[in-house]
Amino acid sequence: MILSTDSKKIAQVDVENRARQSLGTSSELVYQMVSRTLVQPHLGGVLVDVGCGNGKLWSFVGDRFDYYVGVDAVHYTDLPIQTEFIPFNLDIGKVPLPEGYADVVCAVEIIEHLENPRAFIRELVKLTKPGGLVIVTTPNQLSLLSKLTLILKNQFNAFQEAAGLYPTHITALLEVDLIRIFTECGLTEVQIEYSHCGRIPFTSWHWPKSLGFHGRAFSDNILCIGQKLKM
Predict the structure, then answer these.
(1) Cβ distance 91 to 119 under 8 Å?
(2) Most exposed: 32, 72, 109, 144, by fewest CB within 10 Å?
């Protein structure tokens, strides 16, 4: 479907409004999960942060890369000064970067905001060099909190429809969905990681990791990582 100029403008305003409601950042625990995953020696090269927000990911992993590119619908004023910023509506078209450009492509808490997760992952794979990594994080629908919310309210916890709740999550994905999409898009060595931090249902407290509460049931967020086939 080809959008008219007016339709494109409306879509751009909508995606910018949704992006701004995120305040350009995610939980530090999510960034820590990404940081724990990016421990391979001699990473180096280019990191492309798709849906970069205010670029907070760079403060967690910047010591492992030579160059940082941030892609987002909104340009936040507090982006790291070394960021090459590219404005782009992630729901429409292709990211204006060459294929095989990045050593690592990350999308932190972005895919749940988008209309077409498969098209999005295909785009991330195109941006990645052969042998490079694609990393995506998203809310964990299989946590104990999310399962209880589903039972009691017929809604996943991070996707509830109610006044005052975060309104911009539109695509709920399970672990198996991410694994299937990554595999379909040609990624190998696909793995799931957990944030190991989750809220205790009906409270503002979190499960104590020191008592063994970690893994899928006690993590509010998950990470999927895959490697692009080497040529």
Answers:
(1) no
(2) 32
